[in-house]
């Protein structure tokens, strides 16, 4: 039982997954920093110069917990879009190309005709040589 667990842990998949999680977490922090440093101020500017809420509003002006932060939501959408685009263009697309190149090199060479087909063709040819020229009830095409 422990040997199976050890094999599972030492397989390449689990190590690759661990590296991906660490890099993904670091990259998410980087994108979040970018959006909070550059995108948030731009969104807050659209909220108006006198607005302390940026691109948002309070349902009840005397209750700060009723703030609807539209800018924060737009910020999260932009963060997601940037992260997804970078993952797609820098990880998914290159891996597809690598897999395609690897698959091209490992295509099995077409073998000759299988034994079943060769035997069926032999039967067809022998039947075609009978008097009458075609196999009984057949069109001669196999």
Write a brief structural summary.
The chain has a single domain (2-102), classed as Non-ribosomal Peptide Synthetase Peptidyl Carrier Protein, Chain A (Orthogonal Bundle), CATH 1.10.1200. The protein has 142 residues and is mainly α.
Query: What's the CATH C level?
Result: Mainly Alpha
How would a textbook summarize the main sheet? 2 strands, antiparallel
Structural class: mainly alpha
Series of secondary-structure elements, N-terminal to C-terminal: HHEEHH
How big is the Rg?
A: 33 Å
Helix content: 55-70%
CATH architecture: Orthogonal Bundle
Show unreliable segments: none
Number of helices: 4
Membrane topology: Multi-pass membrane protein
Protein name: Large-conductance mechanosensitive channel
Subunit structure: Homopentamer.
Function: Channel that opens in response to stretch forces in the membrane lipid bilayer. May participate in the regulation of osmotic pressure changes within the cell.
């Amino acid at each position: 039982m422990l040997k199976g667990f050890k094999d599972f842990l030492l397989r390449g998949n689990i190590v690759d997954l661990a590296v991906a999680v660490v890099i993904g977490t670091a990259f998410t922090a980087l994108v979040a920093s970018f959006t909070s440093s550059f995108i948030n101020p731009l969104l807050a500017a659209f909220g108006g110069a006198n607005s302390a809420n940026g691109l948002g509003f309070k349902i009840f002006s005397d209750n700060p917990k009723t703030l609807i932060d539209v800018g924060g939501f737009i910020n999260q959408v932009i963060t997601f879009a940037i992260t997804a685009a970078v993952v797609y263009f820098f990880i998914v697309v290159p891996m597809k190309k690598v897999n395609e190149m690897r698959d091209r090199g490992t295509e099995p060479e077409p073998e000759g005709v299988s034994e079943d087909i060769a035997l069926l063709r032999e039967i067809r040819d022998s039947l075609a040589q009978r008097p009458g020229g075609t196999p009984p009830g057949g069109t001669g095409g196999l």
